Amino acid sequence: MAGLVQPQLAKNRILRSQTRQTVPDIFSEVDPEGFTVKQLPDKGRAVFTTKTFEEGEFLLWYRGDLVTRDVGERRDADCETCFRYFFTWKGTKWCRDASVEPTKQQLGRLVNHGWRGEVNSRMKIRENPHNEPELVLFSLKKIKEGEEVLYDYGVGDNFVFPSPTQLHSGVQDEKPEILQNSANLPPDPEKVCSPFYEPATQELLEPDGNFSQSNKPP
Ligand SMILES: C[S@@+](CC[C@H](N)C(=O)[O-])C[C@H]1O[C@@H](n2cnc3c(N)ncnc32)[C@H](O)[C@@H]1O
């Protein structure tokens, strides 16, 4: 009937228009406002919201060097960190390597894994103006002020993360800046932690704002 829109279609339309409007330029140097970092006993650093985000809103970029998967794996073999994000895009395997502690606040790399029922965000792939893939985090539902931002790393229900005392932040920059939150001290660079696992499925955010499913990794 004219004028009636199926609820799911309407929801998708809202999500598309929101993501089109709200993803700022990936090359802007700073993270958007609305987040802070806290140190948790069981997870190490964690990203919390300082304002409410609606469903489908852009949250953060996962910034890092773009390298091929082979290079990422070689780097992990040399010095394993938990900041290498492996993914498949247009049939090629890539890695965003965020191992170097940034001098500016870049919170996408600090978002922790959410277990079933906790997940409130999702990492998507978006092509930047240089035709490279960017990892962009979106809210999956309304996230109230003060909640931890969490997405599914794709590690499975039985995965056990190493304790935070084993966290390794990766290669340190020459002048690492202590981020604003006093609890946000960088982890001990001498320690190691698990690699970053590739989620089983990945959604691509096309330039027109539509989502499509990427190739699943073998
Ligand atoms: C990309 S880092 C996230 C930021 C990290 N918490 C930090 O302090 O730098 C991924 C690492 O955080 C820890 N982590 C993430 N999610 C976790 C969870 N749900 N429970 C326990 N540890 C978690 C694990 O050590 C994992 O290897």
UniProtKB/TrEMBL annotation:
InterPro entries the record matches: KMT5A, SET_dom, SET_dom_sf
Residue ranges constituting the SET domain according to the UniProt record: 33-154
UniProt xrefs under SMART domains: SET
GO cellular component terms attached to this protein's record: nucleus; polytene chromosome
GO molecular function: histone H4K20 methyltransferase activity
One Pfam family it belongs to: SET
Family annotation (Gene3D superfamilies): SET domain
Highest taxon in the source lineage: Eukaryota
One GO term of the biological process aspect: regulation of DNA damage response, signal transduction by p53 class mediator
Protein name as it appears in the record: SET domain-containing protein
Organism: Strongylocentrotus purpuratus
Highest classification ranks of the organism: Eukaryota, Metazoa, Echinodermata, Eleutherozoa, Echinozoa
